[in-house]
Inverse folding.
């Protein structure tokens, strides 16, 4: 009983301390808007890459076969790709497409261009439920 | 009707199986029946794309080269070959020339249909020089054939771009929100009305267009703006059919008396519209979709068609380079159906 009260007191004390001093866990609608803008800017860069020939060497763009990013299924990755023989993140499939139909050099997995492409694909699939591993 | 002849049906089935393993020279095309044989080879959407100079995208070249080579192996040769539009990717002379050079290897005569990728750089001028008028008709063995240019659009859109190249690039993006809907347009509809007025109601009519003369999905221009007006004009015929390219996938439909069939691309496949989650689409309910394309096989979900039109109602045999071939033709009621594929034990892969 005594122990419980002690813990409660401590929790209240810490709570009071943070309420006064720190606001790391609070954010305003303005913050949310700003973060969303950041995301949309990157997704737009992804859309620009998706529709441009710059990722490859033969002028072919991702959007030629995947209008609106359709048939890429970002909501199912990482998943098993039988042709690669293992579970891969979508970034490895993106690189496969860059190397083959686009005849280009693969991007580094943390290349900002790669992040932008993934951000764009997710945007086109907004609202679709996650289906990990689905084929 | 000859479609009910059991021998014929058996033959269709057999060809489907045999064609995959035997050279085409051994697949005889002659049908026994009351109607004359009419066979058409249909090649479409090759999207020949120049990289620079004499370099072209190898993948798209290979799709067309293969269709031409296989069509040349048909014995007997088809009555004619139709090229269903989008020979070029960006309408350049170099692309049209390179495509025309590959097409020139064909042994049978070729009828050309205009696609938007051939058109929007110079509004079809160079294409006309190579292939002739953009819309025309002819009679062949009792069937009235019509070619339409269905990829025209509003003048306002055509004139709003700073350059021809910019206009072409804008129209070339399938999912480009700055694009514009396709149409046949008033001048051509008037021509069509006059052309059809000379044709009797019971003459089979087959129309070739690039875009579907029906409204399936506006975002990707699986769409023709004046589809209803055209359907009304065509609907007075008892046996009338539309065969179209553009969609790079198998579709079939029936609206009133009109049978609709799409053909495959030789270049690459497109996803079915329902796989785009953010917009409404209307794939015809009759259509049994094909399997999802496998990007690891370059020629997956591409191919060409052999079309039997001997009753006026087309039966399309899809010669798919990397997939089970499919045959879509009229059932006992004349409505397009794929009996073999619909009955198969493994269901088509879900599109999502």
């Amino acid at each position: 009983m005594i122990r419980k009260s002690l813990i409660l007191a401590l929790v209240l004390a810490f709570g009071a301390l943070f309420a006064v001093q720190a606001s790391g866990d609070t954010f305003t609608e303005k913050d949310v808007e700003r973060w969303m803008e950041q995301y949309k800017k990157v997704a737009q860069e992804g859309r620009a890459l998706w529709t441009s020939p710059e990722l490859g060497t033969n002028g072919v763009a991702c959007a030629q076969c995947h209008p609106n990013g359709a048939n890429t299924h970002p909501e199912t990755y990482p998943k098993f790709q039988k042709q690669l023989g293992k579970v891969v993140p979508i970034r490895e499939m993106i690189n496969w497409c860059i190397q083959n139909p686009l005849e280009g050099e693969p991007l580094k997995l943390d290349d900002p261009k790669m992040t932008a492409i993934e951000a764009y694909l997710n945007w086109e699939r907004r609202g679709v439920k996650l289906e990990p591993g689905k084929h | 009707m000859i479609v009910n002849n059991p021998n014929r049906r058996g033959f269709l089935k057999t060809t489907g199986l045999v064609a995959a393993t035997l050279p085409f020279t051994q697949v005889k095309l002659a049908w026994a029946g009351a109607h004359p044989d009419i066979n058409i080879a249909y090649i479409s959407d090759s999207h020949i794309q120049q990289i620079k100079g004499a370099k072209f995208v190898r993948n798209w070249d290979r799709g067309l080269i293969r269709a031409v080579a296989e069509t040349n192996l048909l014995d007997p040769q088809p009555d004619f070959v139709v090229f269903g539009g989008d020979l070029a990717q960006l309408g350049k002379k170099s692309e049209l020339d390179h495509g025309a050079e590959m097409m020139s290897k064909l042994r049978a005569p070729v009828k050309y249909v205009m696609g938007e990728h051939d058109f929007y750089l110079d509004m079809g001028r160079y294409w006309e020089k190579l292939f002739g008028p953009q819309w025309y008709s002819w009679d062949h063995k009792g069937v009235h054939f019509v070619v339409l240019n269905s990829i025209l659009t509003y003048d306002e859109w055509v004139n709003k771009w700073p350059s021809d190249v910019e206009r072409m690039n804008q129209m070339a993006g399938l999912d480009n929100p700055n694009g514009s809907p396709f149409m046949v347009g008033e001048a051509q509809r008037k021509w069509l009305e006059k052309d059809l007025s000379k044709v009797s109601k019971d003459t089979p009519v087959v129309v070739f267009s690039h875009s579907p003369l029906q409204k399936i999905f506006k975002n990707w221009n699986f769409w023709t703006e004046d589809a209803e007006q055209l359907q009304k004009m065509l609907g007075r015929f008892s046996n009338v059919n539309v065969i179209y390219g553009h969609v790079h996938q198998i579709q079939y439909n029936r609206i009133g008396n009109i049978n609709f069939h799409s053909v495959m691309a030789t270049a690459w496949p497109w996803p079915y519209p329902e796989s785009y989650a953010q917009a409404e689409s209307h794939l015809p309910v009759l259509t049994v979709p094909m399997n999802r394309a496998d990007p690891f096989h370059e020629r997956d979900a591409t191919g060409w068609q052999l079309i039997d039109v001997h009753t006026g109602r087309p039966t399309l045999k899809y010669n798919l380079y990397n997939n089970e071939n499919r045959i879509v033709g009229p059932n006992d009621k004349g409505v397009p159906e794929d009996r073999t594929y619909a009955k198969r034990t493994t269901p088509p892969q879900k599109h999502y």
In short: Chain A has one domain: 40-135. DSSP finds five helices and two strands in chain A. Chain A touches chain B at residues 51, 57-60, 63-68, 70-71, 73, 83, 96-97, 100-101, 124-128, 134 (CB under 8 Å). The mean pLDDT of chain A is 90.
